[in-house]
Design brief:
The chain is about 30% helix and about 25% strand. With about 350 residues, the chain is an alpha+beta fold. The protein has two domains: about 190 residues, Fructose-1,6-Bisphosphatase, Chain A, domain 1 (2-Layer Sandwich); about 130 residues, D-Maltodextrin-Binding Protein, domain 2 (3-Layer(aba) Sandwich). The strands form four sheets. The protein has an eight-stranded mixed β-sheet with strand order 4-3-5-6-7-8-9-10, sandwiched between helices. A hairpin with a 6-residue loop joins strand 3 and strand 4. It is globular and about 60 Å long. The chain starts with 6 loop residues before the first helix and ends with a helix. It binds 6-O-phosphono-alpha-D-fructofuranose. 6-O-phosphono-alpha-D-fructofuranose (P6P) binds next to helix 6. 6-O-phosphono-alpha-D-fructofuranose binds next to helix 6.
């Protein structure tokens, strides 16, 4: 028997030996992984597949949608309608939740996704990705009634039962957690199968690499400016070491680098839109990425509190994100709390 561990074998072992995931969740994850394979084929076609460019439409965020945004969203919806494990879905590309119609098999789970994150990179051939998060339907609140409503989704990130992303880059890699660490699966295109290429992924607690969009510096709050200034001061500064900067402007790619070699990713609040807590979305970007990072030994806060403890009030709410190597995230968070004390 091949010593290669497939996604199915990994999930069956998580189900049987660790008793961590029920069969329905295992099958749901496999449906999502198959959808990511299909998205990867469309992404890889690029100009040859006539899938590049804008679709002349806007999503709920008011952002112009790329053709591939819509294709990826449709692939995930269609795959999961027949999957039989979902009660409802929510997507960055859809205004409201999609309750699985009665004509399809119903399930216990809620799936949220950003079908294609980093869309601005599609036309310039830079890595993009699909981010997903799975919750269980709520039964803890009598006010929550069937059929499923948006209120079912408004659970803190610590309630997730599965989370992951698929990065469409030089390799197509699925990165997943079901609460037993982080595993990475690389797509074997000849076989069309996901092969376990790394298990128990660990983020170093310290780093010399930060990721932030420096062009927004003049808009940052003082704690973020203090942290970045100290990084830029290098060996001669208070940190006593030189730092490197990376910014791919594709969260999936930046987080994948951090899971692979450490670092800190920051998309903080800034004064361009003072009434918005940040640019990134809590439910289908910050929560899944935050859980993955924590499962790999890192940390994820909004600058003041753990992202996974935040109780959502809106499906598409935004959040400030500081995540990655634990000691760096703790330092940025400390700077925010010190600034609050003197405010
Ligand atoms: P900016 C992509 O649009 C995204 O949502 C994240 O993937 C990425 O980290 C961020 O926005 C990039 O934002 O302002 O640098 O283009």
């Amino acid at each position: 028997m091949s010593n290669k561990i497939s996604l199915t074998r990994y999930l069956v072992e998580q189900q049987r030996t660790h008793g961590r995931i029920p069969p329905e969740l295992r099958l749901l994850i496999e449906v999502v992984a198959r959808a990511c394979k299909r998205i990867s084929i469309s992404v890889n076609k690029g100009a040859l597949g006539e899938v590049l460019g804008s679709a002349e439409s806007e999503n709920v965020q008011g952002e112009v949608q790329k053709k591939l945004d819509i294709i990826a969203n449709e692939v995930l919806i269609e795959a999961n309608e027949w999957g039989g494990h979902l009660a409802a879905m929510a997507s960055e590309e859809m205004d409201s939740i999609y309750v699985v119609p009665n004509r399809f098999p119903q399930g216990e789970y809620l799936l949220m996704f950003d079908p294609l994150d980093g869309s601005s990179n599609i036309d310039v051939n830079v890595s993009i990705g699909t981010i997903f998060s799975v919750l269980r339907k709520r039964h803890d609140d009598p006010k929550i009634i069937d059929p499923v409503s948006e209120a079912d989704f408004l659970q803190p990130g610590r309630q997730q039962v599965a989370a992951g992303y698929c990065v469409y880059g030089p390799q197509t890699t699925l990165v997943l957690t079901v609460g037993d660490g982080v595993a990475m699966f690389t797509l074997d295109r000849e076989q069309g199968s996901w092969v376990l290429t790394q298990d128990q992924v660990t983020i170093p607690e310290d780093t010399k690499e930060f990721a932030i969009n420096m062009s927004n510096m003049r808009h940052w709050d003082t704690p973020v400016k203090r942290y970045i200034d100290e990084c830029l001061a290098g060996q001669e500064g208070p940190r006593g070491k030189d730092f490197n900067m990376r910014w791919i402007a594709s969260m999936v790619a930046d987080v994948h680098r951090i899971l692979t070699r450490g670092g800190v990713f920051m998309y903080p609040w800034d004064k361009r839109e003072p009434n918005k807590p940040g640019k990134l979305r809590l439910m289908y970007e910050a929560n899944p990425m935050g859980w993955l990072v924590e499962q790999a030994g890192g940390a994820a806060t909004n600058g003041r509190e753990r992202i996974l403890d935040m109780v959502p009030t809106q499906l598409h709410q935004r959040v400030s994100v500081i995540l990655g190597s634990k000691n760096e995230v703790d330092l940025v968070t400390r700077y925010h709390l010190e600034a609050d004390k003197t405010a």
